[in-house]
Amino acid sequence: MGAPKYVLLSYDEGAGTTGEHGYEQPWALCQDADDLFADPPPPVRETYELLGCTPEGALRTALARARADGSAPLGPLTLETLDKSGGGVDEWRLEDVRVVGERPCARDLSLRDVTVEGSRPGGNPRDHPQRPHLSPGYRLRGANGEPWGRCRDLAHIQEDRPEQLEPPLHLLGCSPRGALRAALDGGEEDLGHVKVVRVDSSGRPVQAAAEGELRAWIPSARGPGLVDLTLDPWSERPPLAAREVWDLWGEGRPSEPNRWAGCDAAARRFWLGTALANHSHASPDRPPGTTYHLDGSHITDPPGFFCALGEAVNGPAGYFGRDPDTLDDCLRGTWGAAPPLTLVWHDAAVARASLGAPPHPPAFDDILTLLADRHVDVRLT
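The structure corresponding to this sequence follows.
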């Protein structure tokens, strides 16, 4: 029998916290899992109407193109909610917006009702913006704040879509213990709320995998006394890239550098999350003025830069940011290095040729600027 890959942790809302975020005792070790990995579905595109619109700038240009071609791309659109005096209250965004139609506004023929399609990003404060009492509407802006006009209201056109049913997750070859063992022996139907955690071959936690409700079990074909459990997940499933990354961490935290180098961009992004989950704050920052050596031979995409930087600062499988914002946070201290510092970037030509323009930022020069602004002396070799 192989080493268990997962551990189930119980959850007791009323108990004292002895585990992370209230998760308590191990309820089972599991040899494997089926239907665990799944990439998130693409964002759902919704249809909206900008009612009583006075288009400006790129929105006006997109409307002219849509009249000729039937529709036109616009890009990210921000609606800034206005209070009764015309001041901004909050913002609501749509991504990948496309103008698909227009008509005269029924209440004011000098205005237009503009129909757009787009997807809501996760950072919106609510599903639909809320206008305060006596608000004149919304100020429309582009990705960099450029003015695109105003509209008096926003309408969401509801569309009938089939409900997407999530398949259950199957935990295979589980050895139940404690309260879970008692629940199974007693024939209870409510087996409890658990967290599934990926562990390495020594049983050390690597990263949280899923959370949900246990709802059924059957004897396992993997051995006497073992069971296969069915879990209805409440959390998002790990992406497909997680399988490759967790296999690389299967014998424990990698002790050799560049174990991430053979991964594609998606797996490198997940690697950064795994490195963050395993980062220890126990050691103080090395003193200002320290020199770090960055192996640039595998930096062929932005995630690769952050994987390599984490290892330059904190050793194999180390973490030191996974995007410009978190890198900026790390450079403020308590993450292993304190500026000012020197970064010797070896084989920098690989990144210079690979880190280009949007939609895959940051570019090579952007990284150099950010580092310089945070008192990092970069020496390219």
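The two ends are 49 Å apart (CA to CA).
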